[in-house]
Amino acid sequence: xxxxxxxxxxxxxxxxxxxxxxxxxxxxxxxxxxxxxxxxxxxxxxxxxxxxxxxxxxxxxxxxxxxxxxxxxxxxxxxxxxxxxxxxxxxxxxxxxxxxxxxxxxxxxxxxxxxxxxxxxxxxxxxxxxxxxxxxxxxxxxxxxxxxxxxxxxxxxxxxxxxxxxxxxxxxxxxxxxxxxxxxxxxxxxxxxxxxxxxxxxxxxxxxxxxxxxxxxxxxxxxxxxxxxxxxxxxxxxxxxxxxxxxxxxxxxxxxxxxxxxxxxxxxxxxxxxxxxxxxxxxxxxxxxxxxxxxxxxxxxxxxxxxxxxxxxxxxxxxxxxxxxxxxxxxxxxxxxxxxxxxxxxxxxxxxxxxxxxxxxxxx
Length: 364
What we know:
Helix content: 25-40%
Oligomer: single chain
C-alpha cells in the first residue's frame, strides 16, 4: 500500500528540537535551555488566568479585541494594525505563508532562529542563509544576497541564539537598502530586555514603512511561555493579508486574560530586566575569565558561550547536565562549539560558573 507523498520541500525540513527539561536518565533538571523567566509569571497574570477558568466552555474572542486594545495602549500602536498568533512563531509562519512560495527566496542569517528556515521551507520557498560578522547580523551580507526572487528577510534583534544586537542605525540602513517589494520582518522576542537607549526603532519604522513587520511575544520577560501569545505590528496592507490565513482561535481565554494582566505589572518586568542586566554581565565576565571560553556580547536573557580551548561544548553540556542544569547545545544550528545558557537565578548562575570552572581545570 502506498501512502500519500508529502511535498519535497516538507521533507527538507529539519524538525525543531526544543530545549531539554530532563537528563538522559529522566532526572528533572534546572532548565536553562529555553530562555524562560527565572521569576515565573506575574501574580496578576496568574490571577487572571485562574479567573478565566470559569468560562472554558466559550471560544476565545477570535478578534482579540481586548488584547489588541491593551497592546495599543501599552506600546502606543494602532490596534487595527496588530495581528496575533500562537507565539510569535505563528506570526513568523504567517509572514512567510502570505508573502512567499515556491520559486521565492527568504533571507536569514547563518546563526538565526531555527523557525525561520522551517517557515521558509514549509511554503516551498528557498532559504538563503547569509554569513554573520563574529556571530552578529551582517547588514551588508544581507543586502548583497537580495535578488529579484527575494520576498522576505528575517532579522531577530536581539538575535537568537547569539544574543547579538543591531543598532537603530543598522536596522534603518538595512531597510533603506531593501526593495519596497521585500518584507522586512524584525523579530523582537527579546526586546524588553534592552535598555531604553538601545531601542532599534522597529515600531516607528513599521509605523511609517509599508514593508516592515515587527513581531513580539509574551513568552520571555512576561513569563507566559506556556500560553503561547505572540503578536505583530505592520501596515494595514500587510496585516490584512496575513489575517486571511490566520487560525481563528490562536490562544485560549486564559492566555488572553493573563497577557493583558502581565502588561500592567511594570514592577515584574523591571525586576526581570534589572536582574538580567546584572547577572548577564556577571556571568559573561566569569566566562571570559576561564581559559578557552568566550562569551558572545549579549543583549538578551541568555549568553552564547564559545568553547575555543581544550574543554569542548559537548563535554561542558554533559557536565552541566550531570550537575542538574540543562543548557542548549546547538550542533544542529552549526554551533557545535557553543552552548546557549539562559540567565537564571543568582544561585543557578553561580553554580553554572562553578561547574564550568571545574571542567576547565580538569581539562587543563
